[in-house]
Amino acid sequence: MDVDIERMSKETNILLTEIKEALGIPIVSIDTSDFEELRSIYRKSPIGSERRKAVLLKMALLFSTFEEIIEVYYKSSEGSEERKVALLKWGQFSVKEIENATNLKEAIDAYHRAPNNSEEKKKGIRRISTFFKKDIV
After folding, report:
1. How far is the C-alpha of 27 from the C-alpha of 17, rounded, in Å?
2. Which of 47-51, 57-61, 128-132, 133-137 has the weakest average pLDDT?
3. How far apart are CA 74 and CA 86, in angstroms?
């Protein structure tokens, strides 16, 4: 079966990696789980190559810090699979930061680190508001 998986992904909003997996289409394999090593492979891969895209995707799945997910987000092309995954992971990371904020400073920092114009930003504002409850007399 010959399927235009890129068009299918764009028109259905299903991630390309999900389509490939479901249809049994091989995904470029990257054998490391070390973020620094992935960064090195990324730099050495040709611009626009499938390998470079696969490395970014793996980086998006393996990040452990805010700085790493931001790096992946801004290295990926607008509208690309890698950027969609990075934004999704960024949002999930932000929700955890917001929920784990134990003081006003942490809540404000988490708000500022959330993706712009997102539900996570709104959640951040709601978390910040918990530090400004009115005293009932």
Report:
1. 7
2. 133-137
3. 9
CB atoms within 10 A of CB 131: 13
C-alpha–C-alpha distance, residues 28 and 25, integer Å? 10
**d(Cα 93, Cα 63) in Å, to the nearest integer?**
10
* Residue 31: DSSP 8-state: -
Dihedral in degrees, nearest 10, Cα atoms 78, 81, 87, 93: -150
Alpha-carbon span 85 to 58, nearest angstrom: 10
At which residue do the structure tokens 């492979």 appear?
41
**pTM reported for the whole predicted model:** 0.74
Q: Is the pLDDT score of 27 beyond 80?
A: no
pLDDT recorded at residue 18: 75
**Contact indicator for 84, 15 with CB cutoff of 8 Å:** yes
Question: What three-state secondary structure class fits 113?
Answer: helix
Q: Give CA–CA dist 82/73, Å, rounded.
A: 8
User: CA-to-CA distance for 67 and 118, rounded, in angstroms?
Assistant: 18
